[in-house]
Amino acid sequence: MSEKDTIFSGKIKHNGLFDFKELYRFCYVWLTDYGYSVTEKKYSEKAKPDGSKDLEIEWEAKKKISDYFRFIIKITWRIIAMTKTEAEYEGKKVKMEKGDLEISFKAVLEKDYEHRWESSPFLKFLRSVYDRYIIKGRIKDYEDRLTEEVDELIAQAKSFLALEIHH
Question: Which domain holds residue 19?
C-alpha cells in the first residue's frame, strides 16, 4: 500500500452572502490550472421544510509529481441552510446564496502510489530506508510545496469570498 502522510489541513468558514456556483467554479479552475485532476467523490443535497437546503460535497484533487510522489488535496464543502437571495451590486440586482459555508482542506503527500515497493517485505523495508535517509530532504521540499499550494488556494478562496461580500 502507498504511504499517505497528511501534511496540512485548513478551513474556511463564512456566514452570509456568497455566489456558490462562482466559488465552486473558482476553486475547480484554480486546481486544474495548478495541474490537479479533480474528482467529485460525493455530492449530497438535502432540501429542508423551510425551503433552504444543506449541501455536502467532497472533492479529491491529485497531481503526479514523479513516479514516486503524488500530491492529493481533499476538499469537503458543507453548506447549511443555503437559500437563494438577491443582493445589489453596482446598482443591479444579482442572484446569490446565503447560508453557513465551511470548506475543509486536507493536503496529503502520497509516496509509492504506483505500489512499486510493495511486492515483498524486503522492498517495503528498503522503501522505509529510502524515505528516511536517502530522500528525506526531497520529501521535506515536497511537503513545503504542497503546503504552500493549499495555503494559496485557501487564501485565494477567502479573497474571492471577501470580494463577493461587498456586493
Answer: 3-165
Query: What is the distance in angstroms between the CA of the first residue and the CA of the last residue of the chain?
Result: 48
Residue 85: Cβ within 10 Å count: 12
Give the per-residue pLDDT at 166: 47
- Cell numbers representing residue 125 in the block: 523495508
pTM above 0.90, yes or no: no
Residues 44, 27: Cα–Cα separation, whole Å:
18
Tens digits of residue pLDDT in 123-147: 888 888 888 888 899 999 999 999 9
Contact, 94 vs 87, CB < 8 A? yes
Contacts of 93 (CB under 8 A, 6+ apart): 86, 87
Contact assessment for residue 40 and residue 56, using Cβ atoms and an 8 Å cutoff: no
What's the number of CA atoms in the CB half-sphere (13 Å) around residue 104? 9
87 pLDDT band (50/70/90 cuts)? confident
Find, among 76, 82, 62, the residue nearest to 11 by Cα: 76
Distance CA 44, CA 32 (A): 23
Q: So what's the pLDDT on residue 5?
A: 86
Domain count along the chain: 1
